[in-house]
Design a protein that fits this description.
- The chain is mainly alpha-helical.
- The chain has one domain (3-67).
- The chain has four helices and no strands.
Length: 87
C-alpha cells in the first residue's frame, strides 16, 4: 500500500466513467446484500423517502455515505455529496 497507489486510484475514479460506474454498481449490490442479511428489505425509492423524513444532519457522514451509493445505473455524478464518492 502506498500514497502513490491511493493517488492513482483517485485519478482513475474521477476520470474513468466506466471504472467508476462498475465500482459503484458492485458497491450497491454489496450494500443491498449486507442490508438484507441484517434483516431489512427496501428499495432505493423507499430508502430515499425514509431519509427525507429525518432531521437534517441526522445520518451523519458515514451512514449517509453508505446510504448514498447509486443504484440507478447511471455513473455517479456527485449529486448527493460535494466530497464525491469517497467522502
Amino acid at each position: 500500500m502506498s500514497v502513490a497507489s491511493a493517488k492513482e486510484f483517485l485519478e482513475k475514479i474521477t476520470s474513468d466513467d466506466a471504472f467508476r460506474h462498475a465500482l459503484i454498481s458492485k458497491l450497491a449490490r454489496y450494500r443491498t446484500e449486507l442490508v438484507s442479511q441484517a434483516g431489512f428489505e427496501f428499495n432505493e425509492k423507499e430508502l430515499d423517502e425514509a431519509k427525507s423524513a429525518l432531521p437534517a444532519g441526522r445520518l451523519g457522514q458515514v451512514p449517509s455515505w453508505f446510504c448514498d451509493v447509486e443504484e440507478s445505473g447511471k455513473p455517479y455524478a456527485g449529486r448527493r455529496c460535494g466530497g464525491g464518492l469517497w467522502h
